[in-house]
Design brief:
Shape: globular
Distance between the termini: 16 Å
Oligomer: single chain
Bound molecules: flavin mononucleotide
Number of helices: 6
Radius of gyration: 17 Å
Order of helices and strands: EHEHHEHEHEH
Length: about 200
């Protein structure tokens, strides 16, 4: 039975969150393509994981929580992750998940157990950080996750980036509202297309 692992980490509910609404679009299309599929859902903002501690780090997969989270990762045939930009990087709640599931000798190392799993990361952000923009150097969401998810866990990651999300509410960004709308629209299209492509 195909399994999707769906993680959200925005502090806002779906109708106020670009990442939640785009991960939902991906999930909806994935479910349409896999009527017999299972979705494992973790809302890391509503039910945050505790930070990893020394005992859990040392116990590795012997720790029941880490074992559950790692097993969820390994069971997944596809993964979708909502990763909003908070102070130039990912929410600490998502970082806590990464700290729990990254285990050298199992999910990381020479033969990462979830290697190759198709993974869509919805990296929403209030401003613009694309190539050539003044704030490009401040972008530590996709640059970090590329290393943590692809480099360490071996996942097959594609980023979808709804950006300039603050344009409709920040007066100084009012010239960017059209670009913001287009970015969001493109993100939903890309998410649906990716879910379809994975099924094909
Ligand atoms: C705590 C916090 C920190 C933020 N820091 C940044 C930032 O550094 N750069 C940025 O462009 N937007 C920043 N934002 C705005 C969010 O990236 C933006 O609202 C984005 O749409 C969040 O994704 P969401 O819509 O899924 O919640 C921040 C928002 C919050 C709540």
């Amino acid at each position: 039975m195909p399994t999707l692992l769906h993680l959200d980490s925005s502090i806002w509910p779906a109708d106020n969150s670009a990442s939640r609404s785009v991960t939902a679009t991906f999930r909806k299309e994935w479910e349409a393509q896999h009527p017999d599929g299972t979705v494992i859902y973790r809302d890391l903002a509503v039910e945050p994981l505790p930070h990893i501690d020394a005992a859990q780090f040392t116990a590795g997969a012997e720790d029941p929580r880490r074992n559950t989270l790692i097993t969820e990762l390994e069971q997944a045939d596809a993964i979708v992750i909502g990763a909003p930009m908070y102070n130039f990087t990912i929410p600490s709640t998502l970082k806590a998940w990464i700290d729990h599931v990254t285990l050298l000798g199992r999910t990381a190392g020479e033969q990462p157990s979830a290697a190759g799993t198709p993974t869509v990361v919805v990296a929403s952000r209030g401003g613009g950080y694309g190539p050539g923009t003044p704030r490009e150097e401040f972008e530590f969401v996709t640059t970090y996750l590329d290393k943590a998810l692809t480099g360490a866990l071996g996942l097959d990651v594609e980023f979808i980036v709804p950006e300039l999300t603050l344009a409709p509410v920040v007066p100084a960004m009012s010239d960017l509202v059209e670009l913001s709308d287009a970015s969001r629209h493109n993100a939903h299209e890309a998410a649906a297309a990716k879910a379809k492509a994975l099924a094909a």
